[in-house]
Amino acid sequence: MKDKSMYKVEDFYKDFHTWLLDHGPKYIGGIIIFFIGLWVIRFLRTRLRNRMLKRGIHSSLQPFFLSLSITTLYVLLIIWVMNIIGLEMTIFTTIIGAFSVAAGLALSGTFQNFAGGVLILLLKPFELDDSIIAQGQDGKVTSIQIFYTVLLTADNKTVIIPNGKLFNEVIVNVTREGKRRLDFDVKVAYANDIEQVKTIIQNAIDTTGNVLKTPASRIGISSLEIDSIRFLVNVWVNPSNFLTVKIALQEKIIKDLATAGINFPKAG
Questions:
Q1: DSSP letter at 23?
Q2: Is the dihedral of CA 48, 53, 54, 60 positive or negative?
Q3: Which residue, of 28, 72, 109, 163, is most buried by count of CB atoms within 10 Å of its CB?
Q4: What CATH number is attached to the domain comprising 206?
Q5: So what's the pLDDT on residue 48?
Q6: Using CA atoms, how far apart are residues 122 and 90, in angstroms rounded to an integer?
Q7: Domain total for the chain?
């Protein structure tokens, strides 16, 4: 008589042989597809990196797009191999779905900043070293990151603005056009000669450094008030010189007017 253990071994080999005939080709095919997929993904990684370099995509976005694309391909490859092998995807899909919902709720603000950063880097409403006005801040852009943008103000303060808020609000780019108009008012008393006042202001403009010759400056009466005449002065400057010219020109105009005996309206 054969030992019972021998029957068990024979049954095991029969069951294994049957399983191998039924499922072996699927597993072998899945393994082959998996390794071919890995080779294809590595090839696509190199092609994608070269394509982004040729397209001039911002360096801050390249690692993100590359990582997102390759991770997506890996996930699709694993799902494809699991389907070939015949594994059930129900539990796997449920876990991923639940995790995605929880992560979305927890990181909604972060995703908004991330999306804003991607759009800023792609659409380029401003670039590094541009001077912008946004979120009540006026400064030069020193860094553009995925989640935030850094400004340096004229008084040397570093301002960090989340990209979600930055992209969804009005952005004034004062650098893009290459020049900026400086506007301010000068008030003098009615007793003064209008042409003399305009001549003094024009001479001050002509002798102040960093004022652009074109477009031409403009001087004119903007309004007539009870006790004074209000002159509007428009000059053009490079954005980087805006504050310097404003301070120097206003000071020179006031000094030159006073030296020429121009009367100013009395306070009160």
A1: H
A2: positive
A3: 163
A4: 3.30.70.100
A5: 82
A6: 37
A7: 3
Parent domain of 60 = 4-106
- What's the confidence (pLDDT) of residue 193? 92
Q: Which two tokens stand for residue 245?
A: 């010219």
Q: How many angstroms separate the CA atoms of 150 and 162, rounded?
A: 9
Number of CB atoms found within 10 A of residue 67's CB: 11
Measure the CA–CA gap between 184 and 247, rounded to whole angstroms: 11
**What is the C-alpha separation between 103 and 113, in angstroms, rounded?**
15
Tens-digit pLDDT profile for residues 173-218? 988 888 889 999 999 999 899 999 999 999 999 999 999 998 999 9
Q: How many CB atoms lie within 10 A of CB 237?
A: 20
pLDDT of 13 > 90? The answer is no
- Indicate if 203 and 250 belong to the same structural domain: yes
Are 265 and 188 in contact by the 8 Å Cβ rule? The answer is: yes
In a domain, 264, yes or no: no
How far is CA 93 from its chain centroid? 34
HSE, CB side, 13 Å, CA atoms: give it for residue 200. Answer: 22
Q: Report the pLDDT value the prediction gives residue 107, as an integer from 0 to 100.
A: 47
What integer pLDDT is reported at residue 175 of this predicted model?
86
Q: Is the separation of the CB atoms in 95 and 103 below 8 Å?
A: no
Query: Whole-prediction pTM value?
Result: 0.57
Cα 141 from Cα 128, distance rounded (Å): 5
Pairwise CA distance, residues 193 & 186, whole Å? 14
User: Measured over all CA atoms, what is the biggest interatomic distance in the chain, rounded to whole angstroms?
Assistant: 135
